[in-house]
Amino acid sequence: MVKVGVIGVQGAVSEHIEATKKAMENLGVNGKVFWLKKPEHLKEIDAIIIPGGESTTISRLMVKNGLFDVVKKLGEEGIPIMGTCAGLIMLSKEVIGATQEQKFLELLEIKVNRNAYGRQVDSFEAPLKLAFSPEPFIGVFIRAPKIVELLSNKVKPIAWLGDRVVGVEQENLIGLEFHPELTDDTRLHEYFLKKAL
Ligand code: GLN
């Protein structure tokens, strides 16, 4: 039984829960997915998803609800964590455009620019290339951050928009600029789940 918690303080939580359930079905995995709101929900957990939303709010609420330090420690200990959009910002080591009150988990050795796509291209969809699957993946970008630098050779690209890296993994961690939970395609959730099996 694999237990996945979606950090449920703010953002696209239920969509990630649905996508993870579907990915479990596709993989034939017996599992449970739940909203993760309090530190006691982190007991006996096998994987964590940090959704998109607004990273200042997610950061503030994770600290307030006592989740921040425990999630950071679990990530350091090797528990699989996937961050999408604002969740990617939360995982990152360096953030351009952060507000003063924002705290980051600093687990993923990349530099991101928080609101890099700007207002003109606020939101868009585009086909992406994946490292582990031949078919293109439709990436949904919503006021997305941009991965501007990989800071360590432990970080491997797993998704590209043209020749730009838009998704990475680093051992137990996955960070995506886009929202895989807003499509019916569960390949990235399946790829992530395999880290927890
Ligand atoms: N740019 C947003 C932030 O800084 C993230 C947007 C998203 O998650 N869709 O939090």
Automatic annotation (TrEMBL):
GO cellular component, one term: cytosol
EC number: 4.3.3.6, 3.5.1.2
SUPFAM superfamilies: Class I glutamine amidotransferase-like (SSF52317)
InterPro entries recorded: Class_I_gatase-like, PdxT/SNO, PdxT/SNO_CS
The keyword Lyase appears for this protein: yes
Gene Ontology molecular-function annotations: glutaminase activity; pyridoxal 5'-phosphate synthase (glutamine hydrolysing) activity
Subunit structure comment from the entry: In the presence of PdxS, forms a dodecamer of heterodimers. Only shows activity in the heterodimer.
Protein name per its UniProtKB record: Pyridoxal 5'-phosphate synthase subunit PdxT
